[in-house]
Each structure stands twice: as C-alpha cells, then as structure tokens.
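URGENT: need a sanity check before tomorrow's submission.

F., can you look over the ABC transporter substrate-binding protein record below? I want to be sure the sequence and structure line up before it goes out.
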Amino acid sequence: MKNVKTWSLVTVLAGSLLGLNGCGAEALWLIDEETDPAKIDLSDFETTPVPEEEKAKEIIERIEPQEELHAMLPPEYRAGLKWTTSVGYPPMELWASNNEDIIGVDPAMARAMSAALGVEMTLEDQEFNAMIPGLISGRYDVLASSMTDTEERRETTSFVSYVKSGNAFLVEKGNPLNVEVPEDLCGKKVALVDGGSSAAFAEGVSAECESNNEEPYEILRFEQDQTANLALESGRADATVTDLPVALSHASSDNKNFEAVPIDGDEAIWGIGIDNAQTHLAEAIQAAMQYLMNEGYYEEILVAWDVEVMAVDEATLNGE
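Structure tokens as predicted:
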C-alpha cells in the first residue's frame, strides 16, 4: 500500500496567508499530507533557464519559490508545467534572434509564475486557434498568449486576468486612406487573425457599415499575426486590426512601413488560460499571478517590455 496517499481539503483565507488582497474569496487548497507547506523544501529548486534576450530576465531570476504556492498545485503538476503561446505578436510573444528562444511579456509572465510556484516549465509555440484544444487534450497545462477573456471561451477554459488592452489598426505609413475611425474602412480589405477578439470587433464594424448602407469590410482571415501583416505589407490588404501594444510595436519597427491608428473605447481583459476541468491548477495560477502583483515583480515585467499601460489591479479568476 506504499502508493496510497491520504488527501485532505483544507480551506484557508488566501488574503491572510499569501496576501491575495482583493481576490474576494477563500482559496481551496488540495494538500498532500506528505508534502504540506510546512514540510516542502524548495531550497534546491533552480528556475528554468531564462533566454539571454528576455528583457525581464533579471527580474525573473530574482523570484524565489514559495512553498505555499507550490502546495496549491495538484501533485501531477509539481514536476513542471507545460505552457503554450502563439509566437509572432511582439511585444507579447516573439522569437529571439536565434529563432529558438521565445521571449516577450507572456513568456516572461509564464516564467515568473513558474518560478514563484517552484516548478520547472516548458514553453511551446502553437497556432492561436489550436491552444485551447491543446489544453482540453492535455497536451498543454497553461496558455499565455494575449487571449481575451470572453464568455464563449469560458465554456471550456478558465481565465486568470493579467493585462488589459484595446485594439488598433495598422495601415501603410503616412495613412494614405486617412483612417481615423473604424467606419473609414467600410468597403476596404482588412486582414486579421481568425478567431481572435479583433475578428469579432471587425465583424461588428462591418455589420454597422452595411446597416448604414455602406459596403462591409472585405475581411481577410489568417492563422497568425505575421501573415496578416504580410497582406498589408504586400498591398493585398488596406489595413490590419490587432491589439494596441502589438500595433505600436510593429509601427515602431525600423523595417516595417506601418503606422498605428488606435481605436477608442475598445478595451478588454486578457487572461492566462487553464482547462475548466483543472480547478485547483487554475487557483494556483491565480495565486501565483497575485503574488507577482503584490511583490512588485508584475509591474517590473511590464515596465521591462514598455507596456505598463496594460496593468490591471488584481488577478481575478473568471472575473471574480
């Protein structure tokens, strides 16, 4: 009977133990009695190596593993977490110069949370629309990829809030079509990543164009941000619609002939995704993110990537 373990459910107030102020609820901890927080020893833990070109490298390497956070993880995740992201969305996710390492805001947050949880981690590139199916199948444990927290996605996925962002258009430098508001693109070709929040936004504006007796958007759908941008670069599209920090990053690039046009009044919360079946993992990820916020690491990471404007006040789980 060596392999049989006894489990107990212990309810503790997250705010008193981890300083999770503002979470508004108690955290349910699933504690292995053989490895409760008082008995966990993470003194030999080493953070998974951080790429040299990661702007938040020094910040991540300062984060110490927390026994209380580690104890929140179900045992099958204590050996490590399998993260996924969709590369090609700077400054959120991008390849380092060696075309092997993944860096950016989302990889930095994934590495920081893993360090605080005291677990090793892997990070794999995946097409945007394949990430949630990857969580459901168990190929991945957690996704961090600029994903908007929506009611539709919550049907299969739990989201820990971590940043907020609005949308923007990318147009040819000089803005030859004089795009100032979304309606200025009625009847024009607009490239976007299919299945993302930008697609839903463009579809809504296109419908408004028709209701005003104007031509709808001619929407060009792509699997990744890079190919949508290539459509604009080649002249196939008149504009792309994407998230504001990504548009600003592209527009500031020396080798891109783009200009960003911010869209007013269109801000949304982005979330770290976990399969709905993994409730205790989601609670651990929420606690880890709130820990980063409370200790100042979160803000430091955003500043390192020059996106502090995206900061949120607390890490909620499905908005609560």
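My own read: DSSP finds eleven helices and 14 strands in the chain. The first helix runs from residue 14 to 18. If you see anything odd, call me.
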